[in-house]
Amino acid sequence: MKNVFGKMILAFFAVAMMSAVTPVDDGYKVGEQAADFALKNVDGTMVSLKDYKGVNGYIVVFTCNTCPYALMYEDRIIALHNKYASMGYPVVAINPNDPSVKPGDDFASMQARAKEKSYPFKYLFDDGQKVFPAFGATRTPHVYLLDANRYVRYIGAIDDNAQNPAEVSVKYLENAIAALKAGNNPDPSETKAIGCTIKVKS
């Protein structure tokens, strides 16, 4: 009985997270060029997209330490960087949450998490929350695939199964990268991001 009740709670939590989409009127659309930015990495250095040399694009992922969906995708994000950085598509992870609303997403906690998981990618803090609204991100995780000139080519989810990577049937992001590598436009170019709402001061 307890197991059944637990599964019901998890199912309710999942539906709540998926249904409460925060609309963003502003933000980059597919085909628009993203502006560069400068954000602090967990090693204390300031990082911009222009610092990446010889890239074919960027996998910009808005993620965090505390969201259950971000944690479910964490190993997949690491694997994406390990697979695609050498092909010229590095992961650029950005924590957009306000730590006064979500203390577990403060900079020190970011540093601890990056060290614990041996992040192979930059993990940047959107201090002042200026970058995520420019992109139009609403969720953690929320992915923006940019080409080498920072034009947005894909927006949305990493794949179609947050809970179980073994049951993924469509790898949206990887398919989008494959399309770019082949000189084609991703199809679909946009999917619904599934995750927790980005935390801002009310």
Describe this structure in words.
- The chain has 202 residues and is of the alpha+beta class.
- The chain has a single domain, classed as Glutaredoxin.
- The chain contains five helices and nine strands.
- The protein has helices spanning 2-19, 68-84, 107-117, 131-135, 172-181, and strands spanning 39-41, 46-47, 57-62, 91-95, 122-125, 139-140, 142-147, 152-156, 196-197.
- A seven-stranded mixed β-sheet has the order 2-1-5-4-3-7-8, with helices on one face. A two-stranded antiparallel sheet has the order 6-9.
- Strand 1 and strand 2 form a beta hairpin.
- It starts with a helix and ends in a 5-residue tail after the last strand.
- Mean pLDDT is 90; it is low at 1-25.
- One of its GO terms (molecular function) is antioxidant activity.
- InterPro entries: AhpC/TSA, PRX-like1, Thioredoxin-like_sf, Thioredoxin_domain.
- Keywords: Signal.
Sum up the structure in keywords.
9 strands, Glutaredoxin, PRX-like1, alpha+beta, two-stranded antiparallel ribbon, 202 residues, 5 helices
Blueprint of the fold:
Layout: H1 2-19, E1 39-41, E2 46-47, E3 57-62, H2 68-84, E4 91-95, H3 107-117, E5 122-125, H4 131-135, E6 139-140, E7 142-147, E8 152-156, H5 172-181, E9 196-197
Note poorly predicted spans: 1-25
Proper CATH architecture: 3-Layer(aba) Sandwich
- Count of β-strands: 9
Q: What portion of the residues fall into strands of 2 or more residues? A: 15-25%
Mean pLDDT: 90
User: Overall 3D geometry?
Assistant: globular
Brief rundown of the structure:
The protein has 202 residues and is an alpha+beta fold. It has helices at residues 2-19, 68-84, 107-117, 131-135, 172-181, and strands at 39-41, 46-47, 57-62, 91-95, 122-125, 139-140, 142-147, 152-156, 196-197.
